[in-house]
Amino acid sequence: AHIINVFKNFKIISIVINTFQSVSGPGNNGVYELENQYKNFFLKNNISSISFKEPIFLNLLPYIPDRSLIDNKGFSEEEEKIHSELLKVLKKTDIKYYINCTRVPIINCHSFFLNFFFDQKINLEEIIKIINLNKNIKILNDNVNNIFPNPFYSNFTDLILLGRIKVKQNSLSFFCCANNLRFGTILNVMKITDYLIKNFNK
C-alpha cells in the first residue's frame, strides 16, 4: 500500500536468473560430503562423491539437482522447476525467462544474479527508492568501500541482502543472497521478482 509506483508505465520484457546454490540445498548429506572432501584433500586421501555426481570441493557443478539428467533442450530439473513456479505464481506468460542453476562449494546460503529488461529506460535512484520500501530486503551497495552482499553475511539474518545494482538504459541487474535454511531457492526468487513486477509492471 505504501509502494511508490514510479514505474507503473514500464513493462518487463525478460528476466535472466543465475543461481549459485550451497551444498545444504539437498540436505545435511551435501554438507557432510563437502566437509569430508576438505579433510581428505588435506590428508591426501581419496576424494569420493556420493551426494554429488562429481567432487564439489574446489569445484562448481553447472546443474541442479546434482545427479539429474539434462533434458534434450539443455535444461536441468531445477531450472525447469523455477521456470514453472514463476509462471504459476506470477501469472506473466508474456515475460521471457532465462534460468541457470549452479551448485557451489559453500555450506549455506544461496546467491543469485538477476537481470531485468524493461521496454524503456529506467533510473537507478528510483529503483533504489522502490527496493528500500521492501522490509524483507536490505541493500548493501557501497561502490566506494566495496561493501556488497555475500553468503557469509546471509547466515546471520532473515533478510534478503541485495547489491551490485547496475542500470544501463532499459536493463537492471543486481546480486542478492539469502539463507536457504530459512527460505528456499524458489521462494527467494519469487519474492524479489513478484515485488518488482507488481511495482514496475502495472
Supply Rg.
18 Å
Q: How many alpha or pi helices?
A: 5
N- to C-terminal distance: 14 Å
Count of extended strands: 6
Provide the succession of SSEs. EHHEEHEHEEH
Helix content: 25-40%
Q: Sheet with the most strands?
A: 6 strands, mixed
Strand content: 15-25%
The averaged pLDDT comes out at 83
For the largest beta sheet, what order do the strands appear in spatially?
A: 2-1-3-6-5-4
Category from helices, strands and their pairing: alpha/beta
Shape: globular
Poorly predicted parts: 1-9
What does this 3D model show about the protein?
The protein is α/β, with parallel strands linked by helices and 202 residues long. It has helices spanning 28-42, 77-90, 124-132, 151-154, 185-200; strands at 12-21, 96-103, 110-118, 137-139, 160-168, 171-178. A six-stranded mixed sheet has the order 2-1-3-6-5-4. Helix 2 (77-90) packs parallel to helix 5. Residues 1-9 have low confidence and may be disordered.
